[in-house]
Amino acid sequence: MRILITGGAGFIGSNLVRRMVRQGHEVLNVDKLTYAGNLSSLTDIADCSNYRFAQIDIVDAAAVGETIEGFRPHGIMHLAAESHVDRSIDGPGQFIQTNVVGTFNLLHAALNYWRQVDQASQARFRFLHVSTDEVYGSLGATGLFTENTPYDPHSPYSASKASSDHLARAWHDTYGLPVLVTNCSNNYGPHQFPEKLIPVVILKCLRGEPIPVYGQGENVRDWLYVEDHCEALDLVLHKGCPGQTYNIGGNNELRNIDLVHTLCDLMDELSSKNLNVQSPASSLITFVTDRPGHDLRYAIDASKIERELGWSPKQDHQSGFRKTVQWYLDNQPWWQNILSGNYRLERLGTGS
Fold this sequence. Notes:
Layout: E1 2-6, H1 11-22, E2 26-31, E3 51-55, H2 61-71, E4 75-78, H3 85-90, H4 92-116, H5 119-124, E5 126-132, H6 156-175, E6 179-184, E7 186-188, H7 197-207, E8 211-214, E9 220-225, H8 226-239, E10 245-248, E11 253-255, H9 256-270, E12 285-288, H10 303-309, H11 319-330, H12 332-339
Parallel strand pairs: 1-2, 1-4, 2-3, 4-5, 5-6, 6-10, 7-9, 8-12
Antiparallel strand pairs: 9-11
Helix pairs in contact: 1-8, 2-4, 4-6, 7-9, 9-11
């Protein structure tokens, strides 16, 4: 297939691009290269004959339309998004532009292209919109998000993603564009920009700095290893039913404080003696003022995608975290280059 992947220089996107290129698909990676876009995450496939990159902002409607018309994809996998809740609190405008306006531009251009191709190409074409479980809001101590859970977003980020989800479904229901939507739980793994919880904990340990835990660390998240997620997206693109939504979860619920202790224990075990790691690493844990509007608990019911497409996560509550810690230990130049720029692991999203 010819597959256009938006946001392919980001965390999930780069792992997905690598997977699809290695499977032999012709891949066009479209990315604006914001602070979180990093082409060094793709150096191992940069010279592959079936891989191309185009630096494009999806807010630029003309550029989006020209790119789709020129590449003539069999499928679009839309991952490009502003994705950090804390940043959305400090600057919601960019989230509306990228996540809402950018998604509209892609849907509009994809529809125009889809209407022009022959009937066989129309039947083959798919538009996969990749979203988050945060659109569902917050759960209590029990229960799971299903594909039928009503939307209840609480942050500018989740509200912008909810808006883009509704647009994607509307383009299927109104115009017949073969759209699929996925909503996933918290991803982790290699090449994640170090503003998210897991890389923050690892890098704070390596730097001997306080590890910030919001509130008392009671918030619960379901953790999904990024390569498991990419396998699920691959299946949805090729075997999913247009018009359907598929929830993708890791079956891996943890309180934030328990996750941080797990990572600290792994750092104590895996970090070599020549690294400046304070022991025990858990002594660096510091509780800080909670994030405004911090949802208590997310948990995904992924039984639909397992039942209909045969997918389930391969990594469990230990193996994926071990792989991730080891990757950051083994790939210091990757994250050191990021920390040598404008980002310094500082606290964002206080709402002040």
